[in-house]
Amino acid sequence: MLTDSKVKTATPRERTFKLADGRGLTLMVMPNGSKLWRFRYRWRGRERMLSMGQYPDVSLKLARDKRDDARKQIAAGVEPSDERKAAKLRRSNTFKSIAQEYLAQREKPPARSKRAPLSEGTLGKSRWLLETFAYPYIGNEPITDIKARDVLALLRRVDDAGHHETARRTKQLIGRVFRFAIATERAEYDITAGLRGALTPVVVQNHAGITSPERIGELLRAIDTYSGEPHVKAALRLAPYVFVRPGELRGAQWSEFDLVGKQPEWRIPAKRMKMGREHVVPLSRQAIEIVRNLHLLTGSGIYLFPSLRTRERCMSETTLNAALRRLGFTKDEMTPHGFRTMASTQLNERGVHPDLIELQLAHKPRGVRADYNKAERLADRRKVMQAWADWLDEMKANKPK
Questions:
Q1: What is the pLDDT of residue 373?
Q2: What dihedral angle (degrees, nearest 10) is formed by the CA atoms of 336, 337, 338, 343?
């Protein structure tokens, strides 16, 4: 058997030589002076060898402990080398690493995939949910080691704080990561499936929006009186004419606008759209005037509506909400998303073809032919958008019809 002194004083030779300790453990002394621990054993009639580390990082005592652990595995019918590889694989397949891989694939789906890429807003929110509520608790855990109770514990921290919708969305996102792991053969089942009913139910509420002609006129006139930041006022003024989603409006970039062509339009790239498809917004004369005037204020930057703190980011999602509250409209009366409710309601009541409304709202098409004549629809939508803008001006002038 070896001693600490014998291991420490072993000097290198011209060729590698071994010093045996017993029960399969040996020290290999290399010509360059390195001393490597090796454990030799037999598995199903064949000799195998397992690395136990390098001296002096691994002492004689620690090498013996590792050897004894390996012998216990063999006695239990477990092959030490295979178990080490499996453990290494588990350590590399942490929840965080798989979640990041999942989001990267949703950002840029492989060519064979039929799924549309997630919008920048959705990706950003998904990363925030994971980084804030999931990674601190299960991010570094191998995904196969995570139990339902671990996920439930982190979700209840959010739920108990009163953030019921956030808890629900976090649970859904964690479930999608687990299903991705299953599809890539790194997990056996989605543990969130067993958490149904464990969180406080979320009462789904539609986005509040003003829809009556008289109240629409009041809202538009109130917006004209807004005395806050000029570009915030411009966002409020533009919102009813284009009725895009709030995130699409806030993130509008000057490079997306064509104001000089025969048919001015705003082309929102697929990466910024909820449905992952480019969306065209025909611009009415009224919208063009707002955007051109705004160009004098923010046209030298990236965003039409930059953050109040830095021009390198767009305005926050709370800015427009705060502006509406400042104008005296409660959250139960009007929200930034409510401009879409307003347009959808009134366009339907005014007899506009539902397909045109759905296309302009950038909703997922239902029952629309794959070979739909988009050029013809766009021409029709241009007419609809100008007629809608003219109607809004009539309402603002207090001329409801």
A1: 45
A2: 120
